[in-house]
Structures are given as structure tokens and as C-alpha cells.
# Entry
Amino acid sequence: MASNQYQIIYYDGKCAFCEKYVRLLCTLLFLRSARMLPIQSDPSVYADANRHNSWLVEDGYGNRSFGFAAGVVLVACSPIFFWTAPLLRVPLVSSWGEHLYRAVANRRTCAA
# Structure
């Protein structure tokens, strides 16, 4: 199980849906020590998030994940659901997950 103590989750601070989604995800995954910040709080994060049209998860080493892959990183940090992360990384599952993420991301009305 990976530690989530250094995870920073960046979401679109102009999007109420995005903030609620991140808070709900952290609650459901029991990610008590993950930090949540708006993407607008850091110019580098803002540029990356806009380039990928995505939320972003950054680990303690500065590695950034986007889209469905960011969610998989958080699942891997969950003290309860970490065991499902390898299943979510199976190419067929991750491709479907990214497609679903893109469908939601492209339709939200509160884009940064």
C-alpha cells in the first residue's frame, strides 16, 4: 500500500462540481492526509492542468498524474481500496476510464 501523506490533489477552483467531487473521492477512499488545492493556486499547475484539460495529482517527488490516471494514483493510496489499483491499470480498463473521464471533463460548464 502506498502512502498518501504527500499527495496534493489540484482541482479547478472555479468549478463547484470539481471541488465536491474531489472532497467526495477523498472521503470514499479514506485519504485523510491528502491536500486539496485549486489549480489556480500555482501557475505551473494551472498551465499543466489546462494543457491536459484535467485535474492533477502530484506526489511528494513532484510527479504529476492527470485524468483517470490521477484517480488511479489516489486509489493506490487508499488504505482500503489500494488492492484495486492494479486492476484499474489494465490497459482496457484504463482506456475506458480515461474515455469516461474525458466525457465528463469536456462537458463541464465551469472550465477554468
Q: What stands out?
A: The chain has one domain: 8-105. The chain has five helices and four strands.
